[in-house]
Amino acid sequence: MSAPSTLADTLDEYELLEADDRYRLLIDLGRALEPMPEALKTDATLVRGCSASVWVYPTGAAEQLHFLADSNAAITKGIIALVLLTVQDRSAAEIAATDISAALAPFDLKNQLSSNRTQGIPNMIGLIRATAERYAAG
Asked: What is the share, in percent, of the chain residues with pLDDT greater than 90?
């Protein structure tokens, strides 16, 4: 199974799957993430409040933000990959205006995954939104 490339394609596939296969899809999304250099996995790029370690590092400029991300847990890495599908390579202003939580709502992650796995999602979204707002402000 290859990881879908858009949020809509991912949702289409996700809705057809049983619970175990949904886990596998998230793991595949995480595996498909662009590799994040170890040197970027620092305290400064660590997302606070996640049960697993998650790092997010922005690259690019306000016109087009690109994020590198990683996690030490396969499903959590898939979750951050899902979050990135909503914002990757868009302008900082567009990202700041995007309701990422609403875009992810159809996945019903809170009911599909344990609370340990989903507790950090608001923090991942918050960090990405704050980064986009900082870039948009110049």
From this structure: 83
Q: Phi, psi (5° rounding) for residue 83?
A: -60, -45
Per-residue pLDDT of 73-97, as tens digits, reads 999 999 999 999 999 999 999 999 9
> How many Å apart are CA 45 and CA 123, to the nearest integer?
12
State CA 126 to chain mean position distance. 11
Cα–Cα distance between 23 and 113 in angstroms, integer? Answer: 9
The answer for residues whose C-beta is within 8 angstroms of residue 76's C-beta and 6 or more apart is: 30, 50, 51, 52, 54, 117, 120
Place of tokens 């999304």: 29
Active site residues: 50
- Please tell me the distance from the alpha carbon of residue 61 to that of residue 116, in angstroms, as a whole number: 33
Cα dihedral: 75, 125, 10, 81 (round 10): -50
26: amino acid identity, one letter = L
Let me know the angle formed at the C-alpha of 42 by 38 and 44, rounded to the nearest 5 degrees: 145
